[in-house]
Amino acid sequence: MKKIILTGGGTAGHVTPNLALIPSLKEKNYEIRYIGSYQGIERKLIENAQIPYSGISTGKFRRYFDVKNFIDPFRVIKGFGEALKLMKRYKPDMVFSKGGFVAVPVVLAAKHLKIPVIIHESDMTPGLANRICIPAATRVCCNFPETLSYLPKSKAVLTGSPIRKELLEGDRMTGLNYAKLSENKPVILIIGGSLGSVTVNNAIRGILPKLLNNYQVIHICGKGNLDESLAGVRGYVQYEYVDAPLKHLFAAADLMISRAGANSICEILALRKLNILIPLSAAASRGDQILNARSFSKQGFSYLLEEENLNGSTLLQAITDTFANRQYYLLKMESSELHDAVNTIIEMIENLISKN
To answer: Could you list the residue ranges forming a coiled coil in this record (predicted)?
Structure first.
């Protein structure tokens, strides 16, 4: 039986692509283990998937002064020793890393033991943890054509992001019934991220009376962001968070309005949904969402509305323009080759193991 270790953590975005690979790895009879941090978000997500999990010590690499900068290098060294010990015990044929600082000691330990490593970089420009790991990698997968210029040519592969199969199996009528909406008007689905977005929420609610003349709205607004004054408004439904029924709400949507996190927009592309991307501003992030959204806009997949330009008027115009040009966007998305990342990466894993 072939053995693989998956790693990555710190945010859900460093875990969900790994989760997308697990069913296919199981079908091919891989023994799967996961190495993450002791108490990171990845632990619960992986244990819920019933995959054996091992925690290691980890530290963060900061670009600014912090007392922890003097402590965390020792945590990384300790994590390297722990990862080395785990790999000597499990003897994996392959390591697949989704990034995050917990992945650094795992990837370096694999390199030390001459175990092939595949890294996946979601954003257009590699984050610090992946930049440290790239020299130790056998292959580096990415989502954007522009990312290839940041990677060694001998290692870089444009694959897109692995998407969970169940997200593609939603049913439109189930979604409409869940949201208590009709088939008579197009549906706009707004997703502001796990914490929601006050800016996006306010812009949507400010134009709601006009929107509801022609559309229905499903608004996933984030924890603590429900507006009780809008409860019961016909054609508008709001949720703090949606889990299992999300695939059906995706299927029900004619247009999606979203932030521009790499995993989210790759899911939108896989679903072939009309979309408007409102990336986090550079002031609120390292600017990766802006670059992600600009790439998708340039490729014709998305309408880009930058947060600095967001207001009720510009949002309403964006919605109107996107529907007016729907055939253009749908044709561009249909022509994209980045629609089967899971199988592409599984084949890569198989080929590298056979050559090692």
So the answer is: none
